[in-house]
Amino acid sequence: MSGGWGQCDNLGDLNYDENINILDIVIIANIVLEGNYNEIADIDTSGTLDILDIVALINLILGDRLLTWPIDCIPGIDCEIGHADIDEDGLSFNCDSPGYTGHQGTDIGITWEQMDSGVDVFAAEDGIVLWVFDGKYDRCPDPHPDCNSPTSELGPGESDGYTICTELGPYCGAGDCCCFWCFAGGNIVIIEHFNTGNIFATRYDHFKKNSILVNQFDFVTKGQKIGEVGSSGNSTGPHLHFEVWGSGYYELAEPWAGPCGPNFDNYLWECYPPWNE
Q1: 8-62 belongs to which CATH class?
Q2: Using one digit for the tens of pLDDT, what is the confidence trace for 222-257?
Q3: What is the pTM of this model?
Q4: Which of the four, 51, 102, 222, 267, has the lowest number of CB atoms within 10 Å?
Q5: Residues forming a β-bridge with 176
Q6: Is 66-254 a CATH 2.70.70.10 domain?
């Protein structure tokens, strides 16, 4: 996959000295002020390039930059993005409309034809598989029971309709006891990450039935295929719901940084844009 501004491995180190430093910042400022890469540089979409755009570009480079793009597609070419709104203000990070108000992750949508052909999902970072849920019907919406909401309140380890719940355990906050979590994504993988600062775990929803290739407690590496995109769970069509947990279990975080937040200055994707290898 390729596209956008530059290459992932030289985005920050623009002077190629294997360090990100003041010289790189100077180069970024020169790029902006000389009018190059206007579409990327005008981050606040004001129509003009100014010091705020330079600051935003610097924030992109100095962010944690850990996560690889988790799906084998390029937005605008063979998939579409619906952004998160985890602070429920009706705006995505870049002040555009989110996938929907209160959306908890990034949705990356494909077509039914692509789903049937197979579109890979990748682990966004090294980690240990916390939970795997598979086996639910994968062509929702549909009258199939797996596409419906639960008929009753669920407890630990239970499943009904498109919802499935974890066992009770040390799943409160950063690892306190005792909590359980229920998810409406049908076929799901959740990966815990270590030594990654602001990223505790990543969640992947709506897999194609029986396509998941990992098991609970498996170690996975960044970029490893973990399954294929489907439309299981509470889904309106085939897509990957990608969610980042920041400081602990279900502590939502926004991997994109922008003027409408809630992440203003810590870009978590490894590349800019994320699908640019």
Answers
A1: mainly alpha
A2: 999 999 999 999 999 999 999 999 999 999 999 998
A3: 0.82
A4: 51
A5: 172
A6: yes
